[in-house]
């Protein structure tokens, strides 16, 4: 789909220098721009590329003044980075703008859904599923019985949403994610075997949540596993039963959160972090990658290490850790000297 400079300037509320009828149908980095592409210049260190880029249109700051001839049409805006992000969002909406029900697919007779539903081929909608407006469910997705899905939700190919799950508005569930599988609940017997503890709760995902590809969110044993509004979960994360993740917390890939732990609001959690069960993490906590969390964390702490200690303490300790071979050698020499002189 092609757009003119005039149309794009209208979307971005920008002004044009060059050809208002210049057309583009793809996006590119400024150093890789080709004919028919639109790019942007936000970082001054890339300024030299604007004179050599082959991109048809370039978004620049409204303060930009060319010092040489340009072959690209300019769209001037207040903030090029934000403007390009807005354009990316618009482009994504156009690209994903599908409606209708493809066949083969299965829809239970008791399903209800709103306007502009897209249901991809080989998708399954179970009994009593309720779906809002402008929902897009891509091929090979499974939506179990009694699931509720709000408005403007994207569920990408191969996602599995188990029964009783509740998903709010404006959420994104990426391919391969599994929401509502059984929590890891087993009771040991005297003979060393395990009996399964039935997991009869559900998962609640509030508004504006993103769930990455391959991420799993387990249903609660009783009650609900809750992902609060605005949470962003990366790919391949494990959220166990009865966990609660607070509003606007972001968690990077391969993190595991064990059962019944509570994570506060506005936390930033790095990749491969392990969080033990039944602990409390406060608000605005920052946890560095590969940390192991086995204790409660207060508000505003910055944590690193495994087991985790204070970030500043960790950095000081690490200096000594790197010097351990030298320290050990000096101690050995001191012991030897004492022995020789004793």
TrEMBL record:
Pathway: Bacterial outer membrane biogenesis; LPS lipid A biosynthesis. It catalyses: a UDP-3-O-[(3R)-3-hydroxyacyl]-alpha-D-glucosamine + a (3R)-hydroxyacyl-[ACP] = a UDP-2-N,3-O-bis[(3R)-3-hydroxyacyl]-alpha-D-glucosamine + holo-[ACP] + H(+). Keywords: Acyltransferase, Lipid A biosynthesis, Lipid biosynthesis, Lipid metabolism, Repeat, Transferase. The active site is at 241 (proton acceptor). Its EC number is 2.3.1.191. The keyword Lipid metabolism applies. One of its GO terms (molecular function) is UDP-3-O-[(3R)-3-hydroxyacyl]-glucosamine N-acyltransferase activity. Residues 22-89 form the UDP-3-O-[3-hydroxymyristoyl] glucosamine N-acyltransferase non-repeat region domain. NCBIfam families: lipid_A_lpxD, PRK00892.1. Catalyzes the N-acylation of UDP-3-O-acylglucosamine using 3-hydroxyacyl-ACP as the acyl donor. Is involved in the biosynthesis of lipid A, a phosphorylated glycolipid that anchors the lipopolysaccharide to the outer membrane of the cell. Belongs to the transferase hexapeptide repeat family. LpxD subfamily. Homotrimer. This is UDP-3-O-acylglucosamine N-acyltransferase. The lineage of its organism: Bacteria, Pseudomonadati, Bacteroidota, Flavobacteriia, Flavobacteriales. The gene is lpxD.
């Amino acid at each position: 789909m092609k757009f003119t400079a005039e149309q794009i300037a209208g979307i971005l509320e920008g002004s044009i220098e060059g050809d208002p009828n210049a057309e583009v149908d793809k996006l590119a980095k400024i150093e890789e721009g080709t004919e028919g592409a639109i790019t942007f210049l936000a970082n001054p260190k890339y300024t030299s590329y604007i004179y050599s880029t082959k991109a048809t249109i370039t978004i620049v700051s409204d303060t930009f003044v060319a010092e040489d001839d340009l072959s690209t049409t300019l769209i001037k805006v207040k903030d090029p980075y934000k403007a390009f992000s807005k354009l990316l969002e618009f482009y994504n909406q156009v690209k994903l703008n599908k409606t209708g029900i493809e066949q083969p697919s299965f829809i239970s007779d008791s399903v209800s859904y709103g306007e502009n539903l897209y249901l991809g081929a080989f998708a399954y909608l179970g009994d009593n599923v309720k779906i809002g407006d402008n929902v897009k469910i891509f091929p090979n997705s499974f939506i179990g019985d009694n699931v509720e899905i709000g408005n403007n939700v994207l569920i990408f190919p191969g996602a599995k949403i188990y029964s009783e799950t509740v998903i709010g508005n404006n959420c994104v569930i990426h391919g391969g994610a599994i929401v509502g599988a059984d929590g890891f609940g087993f009771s040991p017997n005297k003979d060393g075997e395990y009996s399964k503890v039935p997991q009869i709760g559900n998962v609640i995902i509030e508004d504006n949540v993103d769930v990455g590809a391959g991420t799993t969110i387990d249903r609660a044993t009783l009650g609900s596993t809750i992902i609060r509004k605005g949470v962003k979960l990366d790919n391949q994360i494990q959220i166990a039963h009865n966990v609660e993740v607070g509003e606007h917390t972001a968690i990077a890939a391969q993190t595991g959160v064990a059962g019944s732990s509570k994570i506060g609001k506005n936390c930033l959690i790095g990749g491969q972090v392990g969080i033990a069960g039944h602990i409390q993490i406060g608000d605005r906590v920052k946890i560095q990658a590969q940390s192991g969390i086995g204790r409660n964390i207060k508000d505003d702490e910055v944590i690193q290490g495994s087991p985790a200690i204070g970030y500043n303490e960790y950095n000081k300790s690490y200096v000594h850790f790197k010097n351990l071979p030298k320290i050990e050698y000096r101690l050995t020499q001191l012991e030897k000297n004492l022995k020789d002189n004793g």
